[in-house]
Design brief:
With about 300 residues, the chain is mostly beta strands. Helices cover about 5% and strands about 45% of the residues. Strands 2-8-7-4-5 form a five-stranded mixed β-sheet, with no helix packed on it. The termini are far apart.
Length: about 300
């Protein structure tokens, strides 16, 4: 039993009354597996400073530990990169020179041995093969913030970057050149895509693209209908009903809040619902309202507060 398994076993004894020990210990052993490198292959010579690292998936792995050394791991002058990656590919800008890269697969209990390969970046003649890595905002962001800083990683040898912003009709609403790796833009409401490519004056990369949905509209206020305000019933199965006109933009959702007194301090329950919504309650007085939210972070004014009594 190795040190890690011993620690897991001792921990299992401590929490035995709460969890299944078998469940804790059964982490797939991947230590005898090997990560197969795809690119760059060993002793590759590259003509672009944008290096795309790729490898094959290892079953039962959770992440991959990727390292890049210059010129090698035997006598490194610099560890250029040391990171954990959840995918089976990674893109990195590197200066001209000789390198080694290595990678191992890991999970919560085990890890493989490193697989290593050497490569050399001879020059940046294939500038057009670089890829601009967009950094923020995240792809498919849904936000109510109209002012956004679009940013990306620099490309070695680039003299400027072309930025394009398209609306939902695929029409350009903004086009600009920048020597910086960021561009400030104030959006209107709607769906947009933003694109960036690099240029060295003679050659250009392809555009890299991300999407963004901007929604500043507050959802409409729900209108309550059932149970009627100040109504009295003997039924314990209550059918809550309300209406609200949806607004185009990000997805909207409704939440019901039910209290036991008019001061609205003793919350009995709160749930995300759609109308109609049924709930079994006990005898007593209840006060309720509905409030709406959207994915962009906007929220409606709360509805009127209705009350009802179950005898």
């Amino acid at each position: 039993m190795n040190k890690y398994q011993l620690y897991k076993f001792l921990g299992c004894i401590i929490v035995l009354s709460f969890f299944s020990c078998e469940e804790i210990l059964l982490v797939p052993d991947i230590s005898k597996e090997k990560v197969t490198l795809t690119a760059p292959a060993n002793n590759s010579v590259l003509f672009s400073t944008g290096v795309s690292f790729s490898w094959e998936y290892v079953k039962d792995s959770e992440k991959y530990h990727l390292q890049i050394a210059k010129p090698n791991f035997t006598a490194p002058v610099e560890i250029v990169l040391d990171t954990l990656v959840s995918k089976t590919s990674f893109l990195q800008q590197l200066n001209i020179g000789k390198y080694e890269w290595r990678i191992k697969a890991v999970n919560s209990g085990y890890e493989t041995q490193y697989t290593t390969a050497a490569f050399e970046i001879l020059n940046n003649e294939d500038f057009q093969n670089n890829t601009v890595i967009l950094t923020s905002p995240a792809n498919n962001l849904i936000t109510k913030t109209v002012a956004q800083k679009l940013s990306w990683q620099s490309i070695i040898g680039a003299t400027e970057y072309q930025v394009q912003i398209y609306d939902s009709n695929n029409e350009i609403v903004k086009e600009s050149n920048s020597t910086a790796t960021a561009f400030d833009y104030t959006f209107t409401d709607g769906n947009f895509s933003w694109k960036v490519r690099a240029s060295n004056g003679a050659k250009e990369t392809l555009y890299s693209s991300r999407n963004i949905l901007v929604d500043t509209k507050t959802p409409n206020t729900p209108i309550l209908s059932n149970p009627a305000d100040k109504s009295i019933t003997t039924a314990t199965d209550i059918n809550f009903q309300y209406s609200r006109n949806a607004i185009s933009g990000s997805t909207e959702k409704d939440s019901i809040y039910v209290y036991s007194e008019s001061a609205l301090t003793n919350l009995k329950f709160k749930e995300e619902i759609t109308s109609p919504y049924s709930k079994t309650l006990t005898a007593g007085s209840y006060y309720w309202y509905v409030k709406s939210f959207d994915q962009a972070g906007n929220s409606s004014i709360r509805s009127a507060v209705f009350s009802f009594t179950i005898n």
